[in-house]
């Protein structure tokens, strides 16, 4: 039985963004997005209102959650006498 094409593959073929049967990859051969190469995720579990408040600050300051977290980590590093590397 022939395997069905994925929806994203079909959409790319229809839009002309990829050769038929071979969609363009938006990830590296290792399976990560190029913008994430050499990076490591840091995560934590918080109350939903923490997430909401962080997003609200991002909207007010026109900054991404990632940029706000980098700012917070740099402040923490500085507090403990470390380099601001985030």
Per DSSP E runs of 2 or more residues, the count of β-strands stands at 0
Instruction: Return the average pLDDT rounded to an integer.
Output: 87
Count every helix, treating DSSP H or I runs of 4 or more residues as helices.
3
Query: Major sheet, described briefly?
Result: none
Structure description:
With 86 residues, the chain is mainly alpha-helical. It has 2 domains: 28 residues, no CATH class; 41 residues, no CATH class. The protein is built from 3 helices and no strands.
For this entry, give a set of tags.
mainly alpha; 0% strand; 3 helices; 2 domains; 86 residues
In short:
With 86 residues, this protein is an all-alpha fold. It has helices at residues 7-15, 48-61, 65-79.
Which SSEs are present, and which pair or pack?
Elements: H1 7-15, H2 48-61, H3 65-79
């Amino acid at each position: 039985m022939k395997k069905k094409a994925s929806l994203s593959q079909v959409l790319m073929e229809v839009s002309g963004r990829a050769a038929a049967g071979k969609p363009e990859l938006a990830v590296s051969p290792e399976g990560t997005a190029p913008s994430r190469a050499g990076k490591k995720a840091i995560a934590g579990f918080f109350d939903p209102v923490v997430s909401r408040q962080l997003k609200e600050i991002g909207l007010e300051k026109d900054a991404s959650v990632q940029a706000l977290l980098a700012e917070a980590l740099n402040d923490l590093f500085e507090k403990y006498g470390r380099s601001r590397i985030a």
